[in-house]
Amino acid sequence: EGGVLPGIKVDKGTVELNGTNGETFTQGLDGLAQRCQKYYEAGARFAKWRAVLKISANEPTELAIQENANGLAMYAAICQQCGLVPIVEPEILVDGSHDIQKCAAVTERVLAACYKALNDHHVMLEGTLLKPNMVTPGSDSPKVAPEVIAEYTVRALQRTVPAAVPAIVFLSGGQSEEEATLNLNAMNKLQTKKPWSLSFSFGRALQQSTLKTWAGKEENVKKAQDALLVRCKANSEATLGTYKGDAELCEGAAESLHVKDYKY
Amino acid sequence: DELAKNAAYIGTPGKGILAADESTGTIGKRLASINVENVEENRRALRELLFTAPGALQFISGVIFFEETLYQKTASGKLFVDVLKESGVLPGIKVDTGTVVLNGTNDETFTQGLDGLAQRCQKYYEAGARFAKWRAVLKIGTIEPTELAIQENANGLAMYSAICQQCGLVPIVEPEILVDGPHDINKCAAVTERVLAACYKALNDHHVMLEGTLLKPNMVTPGSDSPKVAPEVIAEHTVRALQRTVPPAVPAVVFLSGGQSEEEATINLNAMNKLKTKKPWSLSFSFGRALQQSTLKAWGGKAENVAKAQEAFLVRCKANSEATLGTYKGDAKLGEGAAESLHVKDYKY
Q1: Exposed (0-12), middle (13-18) or buried (19+): which is B5, by Cβ within 10 Å?
Q2: Interface pTM (ipTM) of the complex?
Q3: Which of A251, B48, B133, B331 is most buried when burial is the number of CB atoms within 10 A of its CB?
Q4: Membrane-spanning regions, if any (chain B) (predicted)?
Q5: Based on the structure, what is the number of domains in chain A?
């Protein structure tokens, strides 16, 4: 009724890769086709699968990149066969003391591997979405301006994401609500080649202040919904590059949502 | 960054590349077709004809040389590279040394030229070259192209590209899929997408900066033994293949003509530029035969025909310039040979 497409998380979480330093691959392929058919019947029209990589002295390793890219491609192909648009999410965790250049280099390497795998698996890019991390310094590194994040992020995408992909919907990965919105806004203000729309797929960064406002009490519902509307509108403007940073900041909107080694 | 600047310049709308890098053997075949002896003076005279054609260079952003030509001069003693520089045209240089059959395949090949490439590139840069070209060749057959052929050629292109960039030369990445065969356009599209995806993975693996590269692919067409299709169909399949594989960071795609006639190549390029769809790279030309065919015929090796031949050349340059803007009306005064197919089976340079 609101013209919103329902989507469905279809992965079953991460499992450690043997012989690595805590790197993981994502499970969920077994019986995936049948599950997707059920989900489609229930009204779902897109799906999500989160692959996780990390940056460290030796990470991400080639094994981790290949396994996760391949998993994403297998999942994506199965989804399309079942009528679901696959969101391809290769999250590179923000944890670490690396700088933004390191994040950029890793992001470009990971995305290149993903699109090679998607091509190998005959996935139709026009019917996919990408949900990447923004390119930022590590969580233990000094912060940089939104314009810097925007430049590095968009450049990484220009170098790896074919124009056939219709949209890129960023994860917020521990950024505060306001940070995530400002960074997205900066990207959409950038005057450069962007053949895919740049939007959001936010969890924590859309719900944090709403959660705090609600606090589980029925009498707070309306106030909490107001808080959600503020973030929705702000992010909508960010996709247009028109956000003026004036969203009525609720308690928690500027609060970092970073949790080290975040596990869903 | 000089590489990104030069690559972007080559893709300037309204301009394209003249591929004049025919090896001595190949140019010999062209000269033979007009009964001209394959000696250095004739090779020099032909290139001088092209580079000094009045009004032509404004439509050209780069010229690919063969090594011999890089050091040649006009009859009055001016280096060809200087002639180009004066008109704002970037000199380029072919750096591969030809193809060799891959062991155990059905005549699939890989391209040689990596040995001592860095030193050669430095020399070429000193001589004025600012971009380079390396032609990888693949074919469509019952089981071809094989994964081996794709990997070897993609890797060769990536190695060559990385070395070029280290020497200040913009690498043109040319993975030509020969048009020979009875396959349809869908097969060509599928193979082209697979090959281009492998190329860009390899370029990423080798840390090549895409902003400082160019792509020189085949257009997506039916095989030479298949019925022809309309330019709009070629345009759609070609641009879609590029959308699916070529990152936006690549500033320009400069198509090879691969045996199409002069007029065909121009009309197909024009159709692509008229297409209303996402095209984050400019679509231009890097034509050899398809820019020179009628010029060659008009010249016939005779000094008294030079002006006529230069006019024929200008006609094709202008037509292709318009094609890069999507404004070609198909009204180019067709010189003799302009509509003639230039397809030679299993073409070897």
Answers
A1: middle
A2: 0.89
A3: B133
A4: none
A5: 1
Residue A215 in domain: yes
Instruction: Compute the distance between CA of residue B284 and CA of residue B254 in angstroms, rounded to an integer.
Output: 5
| Residues spanned by the domain of A121 | 7-240
Residues of B with CB under 8 A from a CB of A: 193-194, 197-198, 200-201, 204-205, 210-211, 240, 242-249, 278-280
DSSP tag of B250 = -
pLDDT of B332 > 80? The answer is no
For B222-246, the DSSP string reads --TTS----HHHHHHHHHHHHHHHS
Task: Name all domains of chain B by residue range, CATH numbers in brackets.
Answer: 1-348 (3.20.20.70)
A131-141: pLDDT as tens digits: 999 999 999 99
Burial (Cβ within 10 Å: 0-12, 13-18, ≥19) of residue A105: middle
Nearest to B301 by CA among B77, B26, B33, B20: B33
Query: What are the tens digits of pLDDT across the range A143-153?
Result: 999 999 999 99
Q: Residue B243 — very low, low, confident or very high, per pLDDT cuts 50/70/90?
A: very high
List the single best residue of A158, A191, A196 to mutate versus B (max B Cβ within 10 A): A158
Decide the pairing of beta strands B16-20 and A197-200: unpaired
Query: B337: pLDDT confidence band, cut at 50, 70 and 90?
Result: low
Beta strands in B48-169 (DSSP E): 60-65, 90-94, 99-101, 109-111, 131-138
Domain annotation covers residue A62: yes
Measure the CA–CA gap between B171 and B156, rounded to whole angstroms.
12
Are A160 and B247 inside 8 Å of each other by CB?
yes
Say if the Cβ atoms of B210 and A159 lie within 8 Å. Answer: yes
What is the least distance, in Å, from the CA of A114 to any CA of chain B?
Answer: 10
Nearest CA distance, A73 vs chain B (angstrom): 14
Residue A120 tokens read as 């190998």
Residue B63: strand pairing partners: B18, B91
Residue A199's domain is classified under what CATH number? 3.20.20.70
CA angle B218–B221–B227, rounded 5-degree value: 150
Q: Tell me the per-residue pLDDT of B63-88, one tens digit each, with 9 for 90 and over.
A: 999 999 999 999 999 999 999 999 99
Q: Cite the active site residues of B.
A: 174, 216
Tally of CB atoms within 10 A around A248: 10
pLDDT at residue A74, rounded to an integer: 97
Residue with tokens 């052929």: B149
Closest Cβ opposite residue A116 in set B201, B243, B244? B201
Q: Do A161 and B247 lie within an 8 Å CB cutoff? A: yes
